[in-house]
Amino acid sequence: MRLAQTSIIIAALFASPLFSTLASASEGSEQVTVAEIESQISTIESQYQSTQEERREMEAQLNSVRERLEQARQQSEAVEQERRQALEQMNRRYRELVDNPETDISEAQQAYQQAVVNAQRNTQQVSELSAELSNLQAQQERHRVREHGLVNQLATYQERLALARVDRVITEFGATSQVRVEQEVTCDRDETIGQCESRADLLAKQRASRNFLDSAFDRLTESEQALKHRDQVSPDVRLIGSRPLNSGFSGQRNYSVNLQVDLQGRITRTDVCKLLELDVRYCTDNLQASNEEASDDGKKPSDEDVMHRVLIRSNVYDDQVMINGERYGSTPLELMLETGEYDLIVSRRGYTSHNVRMNVDRSATYSAELDRLAYDFSPGEIIQDSVGNRNEGPSLIVIPSGSQRLGNIRSGSSGDPQVRNFELSVPLAVGVFPVTIEQFGVFVRDTGYVTSAEQGDACNVMIDGMVQADPNITWEEPGYAVQERMPVTCVSYGDAQRYAAWLTQKTGERYRLASEDEWEYAARAGTDTHYWWGNGIGSGRANCFSCGTRWAGDSPSPMGTFAKNPFGLEDTVGNVWEWTSATDGSSPVARGGAYNFAPSLVRVSSRMELYSSFSANYVGFRVVREE
């Protein structure tokens, strides 16, 4: 019963109001500083290191007790043999005493008494060591649960740190500043005095803007990091106002002006992610109103060409944007376009296209709504067995046989299992999605089954990175608003096995839980990346903390919310951890991550070893059926 540290794990970023979603993390809530978060991370890392040391000490204790127990058990037969021999000797001496009353039997009696004492001591030692071993194993289980909570909490604060770093750059870059600048020009012969003065004033403001931009980067706390990628971003400088300190002509045509210019920097969150080399999910859909292109009210240098800031968004990711036949990449997309009309097409395979004629005469945002078409899956037979009373069992899809590399293929986390080869020799029918509350309810009503949590083990919840037992929640009331098509949680490994056995009995087919290698084979669907769609979690692709969904950190999402993998399976990333049987036949293993676990801990290789009676409102299961 090992609860391994995992890539798992997690988690959860606990659903804090401050960081409930990436889109709202910087809006309308009290900011937590980078230094505060780094301090928390340091504290958690220290706690985690302590738990690792405690784990090693505990494992050493367990090994010592196991060895002593084994020695005591091996000694049991020897001391019992000595007791029987002493008894036989004493009986022989008693028979001699009957024939000869003067026979001395004291030595035989003492030998037997000592043999009995030795046997009793050995029995007592075996009993005490067995109790000590059970106690240490129970402590180890509690320690492992705390350990995966700490790993989850660490991942949480690392997510928060990324967000806070973005917010810090936005704040620092957006600070206002006064710049003094002197500009001298030589007036052209055909210029009027007023035109020459205006040109000098404009050039001075442009110089002030360039100087301000340089100083804005230098002032950043992470200036060294940001300057590496300065050429990849397009920050803006807003002219708030200017005041001439002195000006005048020298000689015949030389004019100089000394200005004090008030300026403010503006940069999009998307550009901040580029500066800090962060995943764009920390910045998606968070362009602030303050970053909107200023209107022609004199705030920008008057000799600039009129270019309008155009932001293009859509309701899907990995799409393609074409403007007048030219490809511009994927949304969200920010462009600077001259006044005019443009043909905009936003498309993605498997969705309807969005076609519109844009009339660009000011800064604007265009939102494209793409509707899903029939999803193009790999061929697979759909199976759904009846369980009686006009109820249907889980929907399954047949995945093909084949070979696949499993484990930590992309070196994602030290908690991921090592890379290994796996072969599925025959096709296997796998649940399209985890067993739902509705489906589990049919089983309970048919059998009167009572889950482990309802029998007194209690269902666990994750609160601020700590796993806590809550006796008041069950699979029907798991601590969040439920829908029938949400995956069932608060079920233990034993509960999941009982459900699979019930399906077998009701349908006459062999249902069971997948082995963890079968589960990963199905989840990868022929890929070798962290997620079936690639190495980045993206946004809105799955239900995990800070994955860009409205359920993130709060609850599981209903079935059918996200795209299926190439084998036709849903929610193999996030939503709820899924019970599987360990490949080596030891402790059951949960796979896939959950709604309240961090993206780095819901990779397809992530795993969480648990004891079989454990249940939580972030752990469910799906079933497979053998042919």
Structure description:
This is Sulfatase modifying factor 1. Residues 393-625 form the Sulfatase-modifying factor enzyme-like domain. It holds the Pfam family FGE-sulfatase. It comes from Aliidiomarina sedimenti. Residues 310-369 form the PEGA domain. This protein has 627 residues and is of the alpha+beta class. It is built from 9 helices and 25 strands. The protein has helices spanning 34-99, 106-173, 193-219, 223-228, 269-276, 437-447, 453-457, 493-507, 516-524, and strands spanning 176-186, 236-250, 254-266, 307-314, 320-323, 326-329, 333-338, 340-347, 354-360, 364-368, 382-383, 386-388, 391-392, 396-399, 402-406, 420-424, 428-431, 459-463, 466-470, 511-512, 577-580, 589-591, 607-609, 619-620, 624-625. A 5-stranded antiparallel beta sheet has the order 11-14-17-25-20. Strands 6-5-8-9 form a 4-stranded antiparallel beta sheet, with no helix packed on it. Strand 21 and strand 22 (589-591) form a beta hairpin. Helix 1 runs antiparallel to helix 2 (106-173) and helix 2 (106-173) packs across helix 5 (269-276). It is elongated and about 150 Å long. The two termini are 31 Å apart. Residues 1-29, 285-307 and 374-379 have low confidence and may be disordered.
